[in-house]
Design brief:
The structure is a single chain. This protein is α/β, with parallel strands linked by helices. About 35% of the residues lie in helices and about 25% in strands. Helix 1 packs across helix 8, helix 4 packs parallel to helix 5 and helix 7 packs across helix 9. The chain is globular and about 60 Å long. About 45% of the residues are buried.
Length: about 350
């Protein structure tokens, strides 16, 4: 059996999940972890039995010469690590979401990996969640008739929204969207994983067949009634019913017909989690790792291929651009910056206070 060596960059929560997922695949040897906080790298290496820890990514890439690199850094540092990994000759790179701090960075990473023959994937692992696969199967079987619209809600567009946007594309079997219309409110200084994000937003996504997706972000009191999992979920409206889905369950409601409920098989009680890892996130990331290794072995495109993350990033950044330009934005996106950050520099937004989130 062919085996592949892997390393993890950044020893935070998601670095821990990636490391455990590699250790769960017998085709992978996890050989190192790197973090600028050397104590964090040492702790994770000791806890999970990773052979070596580093404080310098370049040194780890040079000494370990890995086949696979997981990039779990904050978004602002992701492109530099991806570039370094490609320069080091790795065969596959698995990035955490959100993919990039700007659309230009997302495009550049995708194109450079493709040119170098490096398999690039992004850990939008909810495509593997049983509740979302069940929901899409019900949609494909016309359980609610013809799909009319998708409604999504989450705390913010840049981070959590990357999942919601990606799931909307997943339910549509990645049919390319035509345009985006969006509005954002930037009244508060809010940071997620070191990245500045909007206070709240509203996004409309349109496809050529008339289906529309509407995604709303913002913490309570913006979405108090729908608070089931960090205000995260989707509602699929059909001509003969609707599907309500979040991380814990999928409920199919059919007009005039008995509905059905599908519950997640994973425990939601943090006191039962092994090594502090959410079992649902671990299970899906383990499947993502297995799938990317399958891709290396067979040459088939992985489920989480970077092109899907790029399509989702286009919708996120098109929302920001729509608010800046005050109009509808066509896809494919032609603007490479992050209009939220550019607009901040240009004085378009005037946030006040200081609210920094660590999740």
């Amino acid at each position: 059996m062919q085996t592949y060596s892997a390393v993890v960059v950044a020893a935070g929560g998601q670095g821990r999940v990636h490391a455990a997922a590699y250790q769960a695949d017998e085709r992978v040897r996890l050989v190192g972890v790197a973090d600028v906080d050397s104590a964090a790298a040492d702790r994770l290496a000791t806890e999970l039995g990773i052979p070596r820890s580093y404080s310098d990514v370049s040194a780890m890439l040079r000494e370990e010469r890995p086949d696979i690199v997981s990039v779990c850094t904050p978004p602002a540092f992701r492109r530099a690590v991806v570039d370094a990994a490609i320069d080091a000759g790795v065969r596959a790179i698995h990035c955490e979401k959100p993919f990039a701090l700007s659309y230009g960075d997302a495009v550049a990473m995708t194109e450079r990996a493709a040119d170098a023959g490096v398999q690039l994937t992004v850990n939008l692992q909810r495509r593997f969640e049983p509740v979302h696969r069940f929901a899409r199967a019900q949609l494909d079987d016309s359980a609610i008739g013809e799909l009319v619209s998708i409604e999504g809600y989450c705390p913010n567009l840049f981070d959590w929204g990357s999942h919601i946007v990606d799931l909307a594309l997943f339910y549509r079997h990645d049919e390319p969207a035509e345009w985006v219309l969006g509005q954002i409110d930037v009244s508060t200084n809010r940071y997620v994983y070191g990245a500045f994000v909007e206070t709240s937003s509203l996004t409309q996504v349109a496809w050529s067949d008339g289906v529309r997706a509407t995604i709303a972000t913002g913490r309570e009191p913006a979405t108090p009634i729908l608070n089931r999992e960090n205000n995260l979920g989707l509602i699929l409206q059909g001509s003969r019913g609707r599907i309500v889905v979040n991380g814990q369950e999928c409920i199919v409601q059919r007009f005039g017909v008995d509905g059905m409920r599908f519950a997640s098989p994973y425990a939601s009680d943090p006191s039962t989690w092994d090594h502090g890892i959410d079992p649902a996130i671990f299970a899906c990331t383990r499947e993502a790792v297995a799938d990317l290794v399958d891709g290396l072995q067979t040459g088939e495109e992985p489920v989480l291929a970077a092109r899907h993350a790029l399509a989702g990033a286009a919708i996120v950044f098109a929302t920001y651009e729509s608010s800046r330009s005050r109009g509808r934005v066509g896809l494919p996106l032609q603007v490479n910056d992050n209009a939220l950050l550019s607009g901040l520099d240009e004085g378009l937004w005037s946030p006040v206070g200081e609210l920094r989130s660590t999740w």
